[in-house]
Amino acid sequence: MPAGTGMSRSFVSRRRILQAGAGGLAAVSAWSLTGCDLLSTDPSKESGEQATTEEKEAPALAAQVKAGKLPPLKDRLPAKPVVVQTLERPGTYGGSWTLFEENPPINAARECGYDYLVRWSPDWTKILPNLAESWEIGNGGREYTFHLREGVRWSDGEPFTADDLKFAFDDVVMNKELFPVPPSLYTSGGKPGRLDKIDDHTVRFVFDTPHGLFLTLLASAGAHELLSAAKHHFSQFHPKYNPDVEALAKKEGFASWVEMFPAKGAGSISSTDFWQPEVPNLFAWRTARVAEQGQRLVLERNPYYWKTDPDGRQLPYLDGVTFVAVTNLETALLQSTDGQFDLLVPTFTGGICTVRNKPVLARSRESGDYRFIEGVSSSMNYAVIAFNLAHKDQNLRQVFQNKDFRIGLSHAINRQEIIKTVFQRQGEPWQAAPRKESDLYSEKLAKQYTAYDPATANEHLDKAGLTRRDSEGFRLRPDGKRLFFQVDVVTQEPNQISTVELIKGYWKAVGIDINVNTMDRDLFYTRKASYEPDASVWTGDGGLADALIDPRWYVPVTSESNYAIAWSDWYNSDGTAGQEPPEDAQRQMAIYDQIRVEPDPDKQRTLLVQLLESAAEHFWVIGVALPVGTFGLVKNDFHNVPKSMIASYRYLTPGPTHPEQYFTSAT
User: Fold this and answer.
1) CB atoms within 10 A of CB 464
2) Residues 6+ apart with CB under 8 A from 292
3) Do the domain assignments include residue 395?
4) In what residue span(s) does the Solute-binding protein family domain sit (predicted)?
5) Spatial separation of the C-alpha atoms in residues 399 and 392, rounded to whole Å
6) Maximum Cα–Cα distance for the chain, whole Å?
7) Neighbouring C-beta atoms of residue 377, cutoff 10 Å
8) Tens digits of per-residue pLDDT, 458-471?
């Protein structure tokens, strides 16, 4: 692998979904329409438009400098700040961003917490410098050397250096008490890597075997652990640095330091514990307060943020961000039509901006003074039905693992009726398969068994051995009992509930008895972690670039592979946990192992195509319909927001679009 300068894994062709180990996108990029690359490290680059003010920092910060409460701007910025190209025009300081969210901490991590060592470009086609201003890849993908941006400071003013990464790596993510199993991001070939400090601003990750996905994963969701544990703050809660830490834990009401450490905010920026005023971060905004029993999260600008606009004016433009937790989606919908928000980004699942709500929201655009923005979804299915192929009940396991059973139930679904009734005629019959925009698109994987054909459905169910029926016409299991199972669906997804209610009728017509088992998201995850569900429904991730790093529906290797969590646990524990999968699944896992250690993007793609061909053959799960593009809402006085953005968990929408350059003209 040749050495690079931080741009070494850029994508030279949008036809290719796997350059630099990630995905190209055929959808039109809002950024390409503006002719602006959005990010530079050259402070002298012209913006093409005069700034609206000569101020180089927010007036409130300038006042603090004048009062001697804050260092001058030149002492707060690094020598080479990241220069963010504004989308429409240079913004003005002031104002705030108010938005509704179902889970403020999780969404704060996307809207305001996307500052990793490296980052994705807005169109998801390049990996760009960020906290690391450059890097080299050596020894065939076994070594990754990062050169940190000098002069970056945490939000409390303390320097960010290699010591912070060394602490977070050695003492947090590789601490077996905190992480009994190291995060997979930092392992290759089943073995954890190591982090060497070269100097105060240079670190090197070293792995025994090539880690082909490392840079891609560092730019994606889940790469926050090393950037969310400032050593100067969290070392006081760690036994290596504080011999009295157990006494401190007991004093504060914790059973041990292991319980106290994450509760103090270390580790996950998606937890409420992290978003506390005393926890330093590296983001554009820091926590001001958590109010109303966690129902409102209020952020304020970070005076030490290390990015500027092209005129050298420190970002962010906005003074703050307020997350209001959604407790009732109907109420939130009414508030949205009334314009009580600044920006609701396109989501990849749930929320207010759904196909069902779009007509209501469209009618209120003028009165609510807002506009729609397009979301290019990476989701490839509205609803993926996953049978628990590792079910504890031997009879259900035998039935679910029979491919003819799954084929039969797929043919029994009237997808066109679901699309018309539930999704406002928006969609296309589709299995769990990459979208058409992806060059990984496979017609076989996407369209097989999608025809509504009850006669064919009955033939396959009979072929699966389910020929006996009871007096009500329901098919019997191998042990003679009625074949009945529950389908878990989360209450936050009303469209999925409606979908499964219709499917219940279709399956009854071919002799299958089910119950729609609704629950909140927390219980859903608790049940699947203990292998309890009979079957479940979830959104189809993995439709674009995320197919490489999140192949959950194609091969059972993640905790989100709902059809075989026990198999994925076996895979990720080297056989010490979960349930050993059958040989065909293990062969798939072996292919994915090759992808994970392959440093060559072209070879990665070849292997991924092979993996998808295998997924088509095994037909692990049943898809319903391909989603159309999603949408978001933005107030007409809220600016520098792209007309189109990718909606994906792995992309961390809207993080790569640089929310720090959003601004408001509201008075």
Assistant:
1) 20
2) none
3) yes
4) 127-546
5) 12
6) 85
7) 28
8) 999 999 999 999 99
Beta bridge partners of 286: 300
What is the model's pTM? 0.80
Does residue 203 lie within any of the structural domains?
Answer: no
Per DSSP bridges, beta strands 191-192 and 187-188 are antiparallel
Chain centroid to Cα 664, Å, comes to: 27
486/501 Cα distance (integer angstroms): 12
Residue 525 φ then ψ, to 5°: -70, -35
**Which amino acid, 32?**
S
User: Across-strand partners of 19?
Assistant: 22
Domain with 456 in it: 381-626
Site of tokens 């005629």: 425
- What b/e readout covers 348-358, taking b as 16+ CB neighbours within 10 angstroms? bbbbbbbbebe
Buried b / exposed e along 564-584 (16+ C-beta atoms within 10 A)? bbbbbbbbbeeeeebbebeee
Q: Which three-class secondary structure state does DSSP give residue 664?
A: strand
Q: Indicate which CATH number applies to the domain containing 443.
A: 3.10.105.10
Over 563-579, what HEC string results? CCHHHHHHHHCCCCCCC
Could you tell me if residue 563 is inside a domain? Answer: yes
76 in any annotated domain:
no
Assign 348 a pLDDT band (cuts: 50, 70, 90): low
Q: How far is CA 159 from the centre of its chain?
A: 29
Domains held by the chain: number:
1
Q: Which residues are paired to 197 by β-bridges?
A: 203
Q: Do 56 and 73 meet the contact criterion of CB atoms below 8 Å apart?
A: yes
**Tokens at residue 416, please?**
């066109």
Which two three-digit tokens encode residue 323?
Answer: 């997350």
Does the structure show a pLDDT above 80 at 52?
no
| 291-303 residue pLDDT tens | 666 567 899 999 9
